[in-house]
Amino acid sequence: MVDMAFLSALGLTAVAGYLLGAVPFGLVLTRLAGLGDIRTIGSGNIGATNVLRTGRKDLALATLLLDSGKGAIAALGARALAGWDGVDPALPVVAGVAAVIGHNYPVWLRFKGGKGVATTLGVILATAWPVGALACLTWLAMAAAFRYSSLAALTALTLAPVYAVPLAAPVHVAGFALLGLLAWWRHRDNVRRLRAGTETKIGQKKADAG
C-alpha cells in the first residue's frame, strides 16, 4: 500500500527545495554591487566561478557560501521538518536534488541558471558529511593541480557516489550519482573546451582564455 503521507512529504520537500535552490545569489549580489548582469560577462553563468571574473573575490566567496548553503538548508530543512530521529534519508536527498535543479533551472530566470556545483556540494555535506568532505578535498586537489574549476567539479562529483558506497546509504549513492550526471550535462560545453585546450582557468578572464 502506498504511503500517501510519505509521498506528500516528498512532494512538499521537493517543491520547497526547488524554490530555495532557484534563488540566484550570484546575480543578486553582483547587481547590488553595481556590477550589472553577471550573465553578460565571462561564461554567462550565475555561479561563484563567473562572479570571480568580475575581480570581486569577496562577492565570489559570498556566492559560493550562499549557493552551497541553500543546498544544505534545503536538505537539513527537510530533515528537521520530518523529525531528526528516524527520518527517512530519502527526504533530505530529494530536497537537496530539487535545490540543485532549482539552481540550474530557476523559474525566475526562465530556467536558465548555473551549473550547480556549489549547491551540490552543500547537499552532499548536509546529507552525508564524510562523503562531502572527501568531495571537497577532491575538488581542492584537482583545482590546485590543474586550475580548471570544471575539471575539479566533474572529478569531485563523479567520485562522490563512489565515496558514498562504504560511507552512506544506498539512497545517497543514487542521489549523488544523479547529481553527478546532471553536472556532466551542465558542463558539456566545458568538456568540449577541455578537450580542445581552450577552457578558462580559475582566475582567468574569459577574453584571455586560449
From TrEMBL:
It catalyses: an acyl phosphate + sn-glycerol 3-phosphate = a 1-acyl-sn-glycero-3-phosphate + phosphate. Pfam families: G3P_acyltransf (PF02660). Its main location: membrane. Its EC number is 2.3.1.275. InterPro entries: G3P_acylTferase_PlsY (IPR003811). Keywords: Acyltransferase, Cell membrane, Lipid biosynthesis, Lipid metabolism, Membrane, Phospholipid biosynthesis, Phospholipid metabolism, Transferase, Transmembrane, Transmembrane helix. GO terms for molecular function: acyl-phosphate glycerol-3-phosphate acyltransferase activity. It is found in: Cell membrane. It comes from the Bacteria. One of its GO terms (cellular component) is plasma membrane. Pathway: Lipid metabolism; phospholipid metabolism. One of its GO terms (biological process) is phospholipid biosynthetic process. The keyword Cell membrane applies. The chain crosses the membrane at residues 90-109, 121-142, 162-185. It is a multi-pass membrane protein. Belongs to the PlsY family. Catalyzes the transfer of an acyl group from acyl-phosphate (acyl-PO(4)) to glycerol-3-phosphate (G3P) to form lysophosphatidic acid (LPA). This enzyme utilizes acyl-phosphate as fatty acyl donor, but not acyl-CoA or acyl-ACP. Probably interacts with PlsX. This is Glycerol-3-phosphate acyltransferase. It comes from Roseospira goensis.
